[in-house]
Amino acid sequence: MTGALTLRNLTIAALVLVLALLPLYVALTGDRFMLTLFTRIVILAMAAVSLNLILGYAGLMSFGHAAYLGIGGYTVAILCFEGVTSAFVQWPAALATSALFALIVGALSLRTRGVYFIMITLAFAQMAYYLASGTARYGGDDGLSLESRSGFAGLINLSNKTTFYYVCLVLLFASIVLVWRLTNSRFGLVLQGVRSNEARMRAIGFPTFRYKLAGFVIAGTMCGLAGALIANHTDFVSPAMMFWTRSGDLIVMVVLGGMGTLFGPVFGALALLFLEQFLPAAISAVVHPFDPASAARAGEFWQIVLGPLLLVVVLFARGGIDGLLGALSDRIQRARKGGHG
Amino acid sequence: MVDALLHVAGLCKRFGGIVATDDVTFEVPDGELHAIIGPNGAGKTTLIAQLSGQLTADTGRIRFAGGDITRVPAWRRSHLGLARSFQITSLFLDLSVLDNVALAVQAHAGHSFRFWRNARLETGLRQAARDALEAVGLGHRAEARASLLSHGEHRLLELAIALAGKPRMLLLDEPMAGLGPDESARMVEMLASLKRRYTILLVEHDMEAVFALADRITVLVYGRVIANGAPDAIRADAQVRDAYLGEDADV
């Protein structure tokens, strides 16, 4: 992170400002929907930031990261169902169960690599999905509603949507700061060395497995906290939040935003959820003049647009949105230098 | 000799029907430069991989500095003082040159479960890495991305990474591979300066370099040792000339 006044840094500053001031916009316009949408964006951005730690920085292609959203969420929901509503119990419990699950999955999956690693992480996530589906006491397939949001002994009221948004935003920023410190620490350099060339890391003296496992557990725990937030956001948990396509969404956010970049996952979450939200209406509007009858249904096929968009990013902009911003910044800087010279 | 730094006894490694290492026995006394030569496919790289721990021998024993390391994992062998370089350049291409070497220093500076402090600002790690880069003449390239270096610079960086862990013994797998005549000459000079300070096992195709540098030479053919001795003896060995150096070998 350099402090230079580049297009990329300005965009990041603008993003932070927009996120911080969003409730003000909502208060002025009364557009409550935007607050709900952005709360969701902020929470899923946090999940994507956590996935980026292992996917982007350590090169570990985990295809089961949504499991931690579900585990964190279900821990909160089950405790609430059983009468424990204090966040001081619920949230640490959500972190602990996520960490334990990550420890087990990591201990087995990190001994393999490539396709096998992807398959094992996927298999564990699907196991969590079916476990939730099959547990009748906690709603099974139908999911489980929360009677009340996590309580902070009257200090913070999460039922206030603005307060809840700011709690989520502070936790998102905290996780970004954590990833920033981690990735520049000794530990983070080891993860990046593993991504770059694991065999060489072992040859120069690193027992790589234990570092990968630690990274895997940290990422899973962070995502478990995002899960606890999601449960509070929707007042509801269901097995669907752990389904493998949700893990795919998180990967898309990281790749779209820029793997191994600090703010990439936030851009990715913002982009994906905006597309999901507004692309259907846009498609309908385009189709409408030609075929009014099927315009409404056409919107359901918004992923037909998302697919090629992802393809373009993977083929032409490997660094994702963050990479594009970086390339544009460089171009502007060069043009400026050229102008002066 | 009991006090040799490295003992290899009866080492065997097969891949399916192919015997890559066939009952290899030799030893390298402390401070000596021992060269391994042999035609392509003789099993030289496979041998280095077993010594450094990327591959595990099927049978046989490896002793290093008085301890049996046959089953010791690669990362721990590095901590015992064995450092290897790779024939096919194996670096951290997306990190800076200095990061490449600093990682090797860090591997030998306690554990890396340190999560908060910026490792790139740890002067101890950085200075040791800069010293290793200076030692191979790459000091001026420290801040460049490793992927931007020339092939010759990559070979030097390989060496700097191996040196950064302050090893007792270097396992060098064709450090001259792909170098032009000038770069080769400089690499030979470099190796000559490392000789005696480190015990060295050198695998190399450049015969001129091998005969100029080596105290002893082991000749491998099809995974088997066909000769072992001082350079002059190897040069005169009829079997070696026949199998490897060729009738008109001019060495």
Task: List the defining traits of the structure above.
heterodimer; A: 341 residues; mainly alpha; ABC transporter involved in vitamin B12 uptake, BtuC; two-stranded antiparallel sheet; 13 helices; globular; B: 251 residues; alpha/beta; Rossmann fold; 2 domains; 6-stranded mixed sheet; 4-stranded antiparallel sheet; 35% helix
Can you characterise this structure?
The complex is a heterodimer of chains A (341) and B (251). Chain A has helices at 7-29, 32-57, 66-81, 87-109, 115-134, 161-184, 186-203, 208-234, 244-257, 264-287, 295-298, 303-316, 320-340, and strands at 144-145, 236-237. Chain A is an all-alpha fold and 341 residues long. Chain A starts with 6 loop residues before the first helix and ends with a helix. Helices cover 35% and strands 24% of the residues of chain B. Chain B has 251 residues and is of the alpha/beta class. In chain B, the strands form two sheets. Chain B has a six-stranded mixed beta sheet with strand order 6-7-8-3-9-10, sandwiched between helices. Chain B has two domains: 1-81 and 170-251, P-loop containing nucleotide triphosphate hydrolases (Rossmann fold); 91-166, no CATH class. The two termini of chain B are 30 Å apart. In chain B, helix 4 (123-135) crosses helix 5 (151-164). The longest helix of chain B has 14 residues, at 151-164. At the A-B interface, helix 6, helix 7 and helix 8 of A face helix 2 and helix 3 of B.
Integer tally of domains of chain B: 2
The overall average pLDDT of chain B, rounded, is: 92
Low-confidence stretches of chain B: none
Please state roughly what percent of the residues of chain A sit in beta strands, choosing from under 5%, 5-15%, 15-25%, 25-35%, 35-45% or over 45%.
under 5%
- The CATH topology label of the largest domain in chain B is Rossmann fold
What's the story with the biggest beta sheet of chain B? Answer: 6 strands, mixed
Structural class of chain A comes to: mainly alpha
Count all strands of chain A and give the number.
2
Say what the CATH topology of chain A is.
ABC transporter involved in vitamin B12 uptake, BtuC
- State the shape of chain A: globular
Structural class of chain B: alpha/beta
Number of domains of chain A: 1
Order of helices and strands of chain B: EEEHEEHEHHHEHEHEEHH
- Name the average pLDDT of chain A: 93
Query: What is the approximate shape of chain B?
Result: globular
Largest interface: A-B, 26 and 38 residues
CATH architecture label of chain A:
Orthogonal Bundle
Rg calculated over all Cα atoms of chain B? 18 Å
> What letter string, H or E per element, gives the SSE order of chain A?
HHHHHEHHHEHHHHH
